[in-house]
Design goal:
This protein has 82 residues and is mainly alpha-helical. It has 4 helices and no strands. The chain has helices at 11-24, 28-43, 49-59, 66-73.
């Protein structure tokens, strides 16, 4: 069974993939796979800020005062016991 192949039509992309493959001592296919996986993690599934704040406002419209929450949970350290 023949292996799947990737055709790169951009000379710049091919040159970059070759340089990275040589430097990382990996195959070009591995470099391309890792780059696409990193791109997917970074870009795919991201929510725009406007959508995030709209969703946040729909689920809980009350403001939270984080300073008060932090202060309420803080207790002063007594220092070392000498």
């Amino acid at each position: 069974m023949a292996k799947p192949q990737l055709s790169v039509r951009s000379a710049k992309a091919l040159d970059l993939a070759r340089r990275l493959a040589r430097r990382e001592n990996r195959s070009i296919a591995d470099i391309v796979e890792r780059a696409l996986e990193a791109y997917e993690l970074r870009e795919a599934g991201r929510e725009t800020a406007a959508h995030f704040y709209a969703r946040l406002n729909e689920t809980d419209s009350s403001d939270i005062d984080l300073d008060n929450i932090i202060r309420a949970g803080c207790t002063p350290h007594a220092g070392p016991d000498l």
